[in-house]
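Give me structure tokens for this 349-residue protein.
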Amino acid sequence: MSIAAKKKGTLKALAAELGLSITTVSRALGGYSDVAETTRLRVLAAANAADYVPNVAGKMLVSGRSGFVGFLLPLRNSPILDPFLGEYIVGLSAGLAERGRDLFMTTVSSTQTELKALQHIVESGRADAMVLTRIAEHDERVDYLVKRGYPFVAHGRTLNHSGYSWIDSDGQQSFSDLFEWLYDLGHRRFGLLSITEQMTFRRYREDGLRMAIQNKGDSDVTLITQHVPRFDNTSWGAAINTMLCAVAPPTAIIALTDELALSVLEHAAAMGVDVPGSLTVTGFDNIPSAQFSTPALTTFDQSIRTTAQQMAGLLLDTLDSPLGIQQQLVSPTLIQRGSHGPAPDLQYN
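Here you go.
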């Protein structure tokens, strides 16, 4: 590398030194698949030797792209944090960084809709694509991006789940299998602690449980269901107390998420209910705190961080060389810890 190129450190100087067009050098630095691997490695070596740092504005002019992938981060008027998002953002950021892209996060205040924030990102050109999480049964964000033809990938499905790329966990099969497993452990009285929001993952998990109960055809099986707002832990406690204080309380409470399951463990302990001796509790997500609860929580692991990394790769593959719509259903793994056990010796009616 010449002294002149080192001093200038510009894309133009780098291209001139290598005898390549500015467009080719820019696309090689951006990791685009239409640049030969030998050329890409040659450009990267020269850029490293020159301590070249790409100018974002210049890259946008040449490639028409910002180098950013957008992500919406809702801010809640609640002391409850969403540990799922923490794990997810770490994995997504790592997956993008591996391909030379950056994550662009936009916070959404409680007085603003996610759709409005999304429209601002798209229309301003601040990101090349979007990643969506927590998909609703009928999601206006998905509808907007599909209609615009804007590249995105979703962690989850709408009820029609067509016309866009997604990766999702098979919650329906997981909850069906969970019922069969707990049934074999002798449980007949079940509690379901779910959420009020119309999220698709709620729909599939609940359907899986109810269909499994129906298919079993055992009249001894009962199900008490309580729905609570996702971020209102005051209502969580009231719903849990309602189940535990029932005339015939459940011997197994299936929580839609780990946060809800951990709340069940706390309230059970406060009420003197022995887990797992008198009550089995299960969750879903395998958030980091699940293994440190007392007892440690039995839950489903959907590999949040790994899935987010895979989604980053899927999105960037689509951007660099369109592959069409990609949809993948992942089977979570049941992690058996200390919060489950055989049903207590109860007399069923």
